[in-house]
Each structure stands twice: as C-alpha cells, then as structure tokens.
Amino acid sequence: MFDFITTLLGAFFVLSVIFIWFMIAYQLILTIAGFFHNWRSTKEKKAIDAMTHFESPRVCVLIPAHNEEKVIRKTIEAMLKFDYPADKFDILVINDGSSDRTGGIVEELGKLDRRVRCYNVPKGEGGKGKSRALNLGLKQTDAEVIAVYDADNQPLPDALEYLVAELLLHPDLGAVLGNFRTINKDRTWLTRFISIETMSFQAILQAGRWAMFKVSTLPGTNFVIWKHLLDDLNGWDEGAITEDSELSIRVYMKGYKIKYIPFAVTLEQEPETFSVWSKQRTRWVRGNNYVVTKFFKEIPQFQNKFLAFEVLYLLSLYYVFLFAIGVSDLIFILSVTKIIAVPLPGPYTTVWILAVILFIFEIFLVLSYEGMDTPKNFLLVLLMYFTYCQFWIYVVGRAIYLDYIKREKRTWSKTVRFDLEESSAESTK
C-alpha cells in the first residue's frame, strides 16, 4: 500500500512539473514577445506625439464610486489635467449609493468645473455592483467614446489622449487599454509584491498576447471603448463580478480587437492588507469562473480560435497551474524532509528547481524594462515566489469552496481604500 502511495505521489509530481514547465515556457515566449511590443510602442508613442492634429471625438469618463471619499478628490483633480481638449471631454461620477461624503465632494468640484458631473443612483437601486453602475452612467451620455476609470486612479495628463489616438488610428479596434502602476507600492511588503505582479501581468500577458495574437483583455480601469459598440453589446453584464474579462470576450466575438499600449499610464491604489487582498482576488477568481461557465459551450463557434484558447487559459491559469504548483511544492517538501521517498526515474527535482529559476528570470526581465533590475529586487522576486505566489493557492481554494461547495451567490464588493500621503500623478511621472 505504501509503495502504491509513493508511486502515485511520484506520478503527481511528474505531471505537476510538466504542467509548470508548459505554462512557464509559454510565458517565456510571451515575455519575449512583450519585450518587442514595448520596444515598438516607443516608436508608436513618438509618432502620436508628432501628430499636429486629429479630430478629437467627445469622450465621457465614467467613474463608478461607492463610498470613495478617501480618494475621489485626487482622482477628479488628476483627470481635470488631461491634455485632451477641454471642450471634448467630461467626467461623470456615478455615485452608487454612497453613505459617506463621496457625492458632496463630487458636487463641490462640479461647481468649480462644469466638466465634472455627479449622477446619484436613485435610492434603493445603488450598491448593486460596478456593472450596474456603469450601465446607469452609460445612459447619461451621448459621447462618442467612453473611458472607464476606477475611483482610486490618478491617470497621467497624456493618458486619455494616447488611448483615444490609438482608437482613431486603427479602425479594427473596439477598445484600447493602457498601463496601470501601483501608487502605494512602497507602503508594505504586500504592495511591493502586487506592484511586481501587475507589471509582470501587463508586460507578459497583455503585451505578449497582443504582439503574438492581437489579443488583449480589458482591465477594470484606464481604457476607452466606442459607445456604439457598447450599445450594440447592451452594455456590461450585470451578472459578472469581473465585468472587464466578460466584456472583452464579447468585444472579440463582435469582430473587434482590443489593444494594449504601455505608454498610457494611470496610477492606482492596491490593497495594503492580506484580508483586503484576499477578498479582492477571490472575487477575481469567482468572476472568471462565471466567464468560463458562460462562454464554455460557445467555444466551438468562436471565429477567433485564439479567443477560444483564451477562455480555456483563464481556467488553466487559476486551476491547472496553481494545482500543479501546490502539488509539486507539497511533494518536494515531503521528499526533502525525508517524510516520504518518491522514486523518480529522472532529475525531476532539479527540473522543478530550474522551473523556479526560469520564473524568477522572466519577472526580472520585466523589471529591467522599468530600470528596476537591482539585486534588492532580485531577492524580492525570489521571496515573492515562496510567499505571495503561494497565497494564490489559498485564494483559488476559497473560490472553489464558495462557488462549487457552498454555492454562495456571487456579489460584487468594492475594494477597501487607504489614505495616501502626498501621492500624486505628477510625483511619479
């Protein structure tokens, strides 16, 4: 019996290592492709900067806000500094059932600048999620282009102009998304890890997939989309708690593309405590569960075959990859500590170690784009693998429990904000 268990564990370990290597090898290819996309993007940026004139469409910036008094003032003040023609954009804050001073702050700023508007969701209809708030805001404007920002964002002055310019220059684009960076990255160890994670996600998965397959997925913030396309799609799916990934798939199914450009930058706040991070990430995983379930049966009908792969990748990213990490970590620890002896006909332990090294190399290459390839950050990435990355196992396990065991209803919940001391878009530009 014991021999059977050790043989079974050995088989699990081998399969886990194979999965890990497949995923990391794929991400290595995306990392290299993402490097070239970032390099080409510097030329695109220069070309846009050299443009003397283009007809600016009217843009409405939608900001869903529920109890955002800690951040909403700085967000609006940053957006009022957009380089975009002042008579061609306005800011619509959807005050979604706030019980704090969010609405009062927005109305106060609206009196100082008529471009700022506050739409108060009718009593009894608020607090039903970001998708619902965005759909209500969409009905309040006839602008040609919709920009979406979270209430904690401080975009750089040129961000909106770059996003809209790309949308105009490429008729096949339905939406364009920019880069987001962590404004509070130096506050805690957790925010440092999140900052590295977000930079890596964008440089590898967003930039790499666009470079190779002309596919990117919308984030929840810092993007523009044609209003007529949103109208055709009947807006956002109010059953989705990750409305961005769900909308992305429908945009592609409609025949449009979504492009990622790294030079349209916004700064956003990230969770500073594990409890806030865990709740936010669990919502993300559960949201992607909804997306996969919704579109899985439609995969054979997808005209864009890579999009079909992308739906499957959403599933594998959270479950197959993290299951492989969890199993291989456990068996490796049991083997090293001599609790069990796994008879393997090959250097699989060495292969496992090399996979970790390759992971660190990929992340460190991304940091080099930003001039952050320092010995200190190398150690930070090493620590990140053995701590932060492992926390995702807990998050995925919790999402599985809530969705498939407890069968708890999926509800949208806002991320808790923290007070920022002297944080501004200009200080980080």
- Fourth-level CATH superfamily: Spore Coat Polysaccharide Biosynthesis Protein SpsA, Chain A
Could you tell me the mean pLDDT? 86
Low-confidence stretches: 422-429
Strand percent estimate: 5-15%
Q: C-alpha Rg, in Å?
A: 22 Å
Query: Architecture, according to CATH?
Result: Alpha-Beta Complex
Secondary structure tally, helices: 14
Would you kindly provide a written description of the structure presented here, covering whatever features stand out?
With 429 residues, the chain is of the alpha/beta class. It has one domain: Spore Coat Polysaccharide Biosynthesis Protein SpsA, Chain A, CATH 3.90.550.10. It is built from 14 helices and eight strands. It has helices spanning 2-50, 72-79, 102-112, 130-138, 159-169, 189-213, 227-232, 243-253, 274-295, 305-336, 348-369, 375-386, 388-405, 425-428, and strands at residues 59-65, 89-95, 116-120, 145-148, 154-155, 173-182, 223-226, 257-268. The chain has an eight-stranded mixed sheet, sandwiched between helices. The longest helix has 49 residues, at 2-50. The protein is globular and about 75 Å long. The termini are far apart.
